[in-house]
Design a protein that fits this description.
Blueprint (H helix, E strand, L loop, with lengths): L1 E7 L5 H11 L11 E9 L2 E9 L5 E8 L2 H26 L36 E2 L1 H11 L3 E6 L5 E6 L5 E4 L5
Parallel strand pairs: 1-2, 5-6
Antiparallel strand pairs: 2-3, 3-4, 6-7, 7-8
Length: 180
């Protein structure tokens, strides 16, 4: 496992780097030796935020973000959250059998008996609706009028389906398709 640590509005000291590496070393039992783990430490006001991103083969990403007023407490939170994400990803691999196991150690799959069907994804409702052409600002207004936290629309500038969403900080985000 290769850990890369980045700092935004914070100097990544040797003590912080060691603490992050020690916390995330517990993930070593799950991930393959060539797995990449990107860690971003950020200070916003009095909040200490940590974001962990693990790119997986097949285009999947395991990601978690936690924040608190203490950097070391946030490290504890992020370690628990990312471990849960990895276990959830393992369960998807077991149930779908289409996702690559290459990112994980083989020992991680030896205890397959712990898979719980109740945690499988269960789509309980499907909605169909027409999408009309509009720009991103119009879509944000429409989303707010509906009281939703996301809105799917046909971007009149690009003729592609886009999504606008409300971010945790109250601002808006735009998701555009990327065809690589």
């Amino acid at each position: 496992m290769k850990i890369k640590i980045y700092g935004k509005n914070i100097e990544v000291t040797e003590g912080i780097r060691t603490a992050v590496e020690d916390k995330l070393a517990k993930l070593d039992r799950y991930l393959a030796t060539d797995a990449r783990v990107d860690v971003t430490l950020r200070v916003v006001g009095i909040e200490h935020k940590i974001e962990v991103t693990i790119p997986m083969k097949g285009g999947h990403i395991v990601r978690a973000e936690e924040s608190s007023t203490d950097m070391y407490a946030t490290m504890d939170l992020i370690e628990e959250t990312i471990e849960q994400q990895l276990i959830r990803h393992k369960k998807k691999i077991i149930s779908k059998k289409k996702v690559s196991r290459d990112d994980f150690k083989n020992e991680f799959f030896e205890d397959i008996d712990d898979y719980d069907d109740e945690e499988a994804i269960d789509i309980v409702r499907t909605k169909r609706f027409g999408i009309k052409p509009m720009d991103a600002e119009e879509a944000c207004i429409e989303m707010d009028l509906l009281g939703h936290n996301f809105f799917v629309f046909l971007n009149s500038e690009t003729d592609e389906v886009n999504v606008v969403y409300k971010r945790k900080d109250g601002r808006y985000g735009l998701i555009e398709p990327a065809f690589d």
